[in-house]
Design goal:
Elements lengths: L1 H37 L1 H7 L5 H13 L7 H10 L4 H10 L5 H10 L2 H25 L17 H15 L2 H19 L16 H9 L6 H13 L4 H12 L3 H35 L30 H12 L2 H23 L4 H8 L15 H23 L3 H20 L3 H26 L2 E2 H23 L2 H27 L10 E2 L5
Antiparallel strand pairs: 1-2
Helix pairs in contact: 1-4, 1-8, 1-9, 1-14, 1-15, 1-17, 3-5, 3-7, 4-5, 5-7, 6-11, 6-19, 7-13, 8-15, 9-13, 10-12, 11-12, 12-13, 18-19, 18-21, 19-20, 20-21
């Protein structure tokens, strides 16, 4: 039992790190830009200063910037340095990990658009209510730190940004982020495999409550939370539990909670946490009935939350071999590159703290004067303008990144062909773990296919959407047949999956040939949805 928990914790730790590394890198860079380019005064002005405007602006900016509940920690620390109220800082910390352009587009393929927009509105209400109450009871929550001196334009200014990135990566921010990853991994090691498959069923009055205490320590990226949210609605699970999964699963982790308690003290932090739980549960139970998908046949279980549980069954053998195989799958070249970059930055930061613990390099850059006279060709752009341009550029890159994350149909079908072979071969030999894994990957590729078509053609035909949905339904049935050990049922479902896949491929190929106009029998829809 202990061995099972240790291997499960190790695997989930690496998987969480692989998910978090890209957004952590972006967040470290944003922190450096805010401190050295935008500056404390401009940062406070951008986020609305104080009052309810700061809560609203913090929520809006948080929605625009890509990130996660781990990457938000260094940015939140910087906002506190800039003098924002506690309510505004915590509003940003809670809302920034919820949505970004990638997850928003992904969400539109998983559930009806009204669901996504309703949940976004609920998150706004949550941060506004909790933030306003907290600022009312604790009006002295902001801090006042000395304004960092300006650095000469040119390479010294950019070097100062990199120094912030290095020091934050090896400082308190990284400690809190590791706490968040480790807390999520330990939770997964402690929860038995499949423990949450029936805990969130629709009609279960305890589902939002159970999800609350699973979501707080669990780490989830916005896209992962969106995929789980969509799975819950497709299986007619609890809508209230879905809201708690998004607001707390994507919005919180133990590292962020630990930082809040250290920064604001146990009394203020406990009050904020209590108000968050009470307000969140109140909204969850309020929408549980009205938002329930009554037009969907309820399923008796879901695999959406298996990632929060131990990946191994009780009594499973060869754990070392299985773990190494899954680590190889997790640490693909695409996933390994951000981890290596983060590790390299952290090592440089550790070396920097070792040789210069008193930040003498920063002090030298701050007092360094221009070594040559300015000419008419020199154009000095104020640091705040440079900083804001970079922040807008990051948002623009996240939009461009959507086209990379949701590739063209030709690339998607090439990937699906490989996943298809792995899924079918695993199903034919009755390998439950591998079948479940590859079916999940295949399912995700069908959704990325829909978004990719919509991004490039600005429409998705209903015919295409229905064919993709039928394939996903057949894949879910195939997973159930393999889990139940029905050999004949598995063979039958494999044939049906093949037919569904071929029909989906033909529908996309036929309609893409007729682009920019859709096929005559296909009615375009405004956005991909289930």
């Amino acid at each position: 039992m202990l061995e099972l928990a240790l291997y499960g914790t190790l695997l989930r730790f690496v998987q969480a790190l692989a998910l978090a590394a890209p957004t952590i890198l972006v967040s470290l860079f944003v922190t450096g830009v805010l401190r050295r380019l935008v500056g404390q005064q401009q940062t406070k002005r951008i986020f609305g200063g104080s009052g309810w405007q700061s809560l609203l602006q913090s929520w809006i900016i948080g929605m625009l910037l890509p990130g996660c509940s781990l990457g938000v920690i260094p940015i939140s620390r910087e906002l506190r340095r800039a003098g924002l109220t506690g309510g505004a800082v915590l509003a940003f910390a809670l809302s920034q990990p919820l949505f970004d352009p990638l997850s928003l587009l992904y969400g539109l393929t998983l559930s009806k658009p009204i669901v996504v927009f309703t949940f976004a509105l609920c998150s706004l209400v949550l941060v506004m209510v909790v933030g306003s109450l907290w600022d009312y009871f604790y009006p002295d929550s902001e801090t006042r730190e000395p304004i960092s001196p300006a650095v000469q334009a040119g390479w010294p200014r950019m070097a100062s940004v990199l120094l912030v990135v290095f020091r934050e990566s090896a400082g308190a921010s990284m400690i809190y982020m590791l706490i968040g990853i480790l807390g999520s991994a330990i939770l997964a090691g402690m929860l038995p495999h499949g423990a949450l498959q029936r805990a969130m069923n629709g009609g279960n009055p305890w589902a939002p409550w159970t999800m609350t205490w699973v979501a707080v320590p669990a780490y989830s990226t916005p896209t992962l939370a969106m995929s789980q949210l969509g799975s819950m609605f497709q299986h007619a699970n609890s809508a209230g539990a879905s809201l708690q999964l998004l607001t707390l699963g994507a919005g919180l982790n133990l590292g962020l909670v630990a930082w809040i308690f250290v920064q604001y003290g146990w009394k203020k932090a406990s009050a904020w946490f209590a108000m968050l739980i009470v307000a969140g549960l109140g909204m969850a139970y309020a929408i549980d009935g009205p938002m329930h998908p009554y037009d969907v046949d309820p399923s008796d279980h879901t695999h959406a939350f298996d990632i929060y549980c131990n990946p191994y069954h009780l009594g499973e053998t060869n754990l070392t071999i299985l773990t190494l195989a899954r680590l190889r799958e997790t640490l693909s070249p695409f996933a390994l590159a951000p981890i290596v970059a983060l590790l390299g930055i952290t090592l440089v930061g550790l070396l920097l703290w070792r040789i210069d613990p008193h930040e003498k390099i920063e002090a030298w850059l701050e007092r360094r004067e221009v070594s040559r006279p300015a000419t008419k060709y020199d154009i000095i752009i104020p640091a705040p303008i440079v900083g804001m341009t970079i922040l807008v550029g990051i948002f623009a890159l996240s939009i461009v990144g959507c086209y990379a994350y949701y590739p063209a149909p030709k690339e998607v079908f090439a990937e699906m062909q490989m996943v298809r072979a792995d899924a079918i071969s695993s199903a034919n030999v009755g390998d439950v773990a591998k079948t479940s894994h590859y079916i999940g990957v295949w399912d995700a590729w069908t959704r990325r296919l829909e978004v990719g078509v919509f991004l490039r053609h600005f429409q998705l035909s209903r015919y295409q959407h229905v064919k993709a949905k039928i394939l996903r339904e057949k894949l879910e049935l195939l997973r159930h047949e393999v889990e139940d050990g029905h050999a004949e049922g598995t063979k039958q479902m494999v044939r049906e999956v093949h037919r569904a896949y071929d029909r989906m491929r033909d529908s996309f190929a036929r309609e893409l040939e007729n682009h920019p106009t859709a096929a005559p029998d296909a009615q375009p829809v405004a956005a991909p949805r289930s």
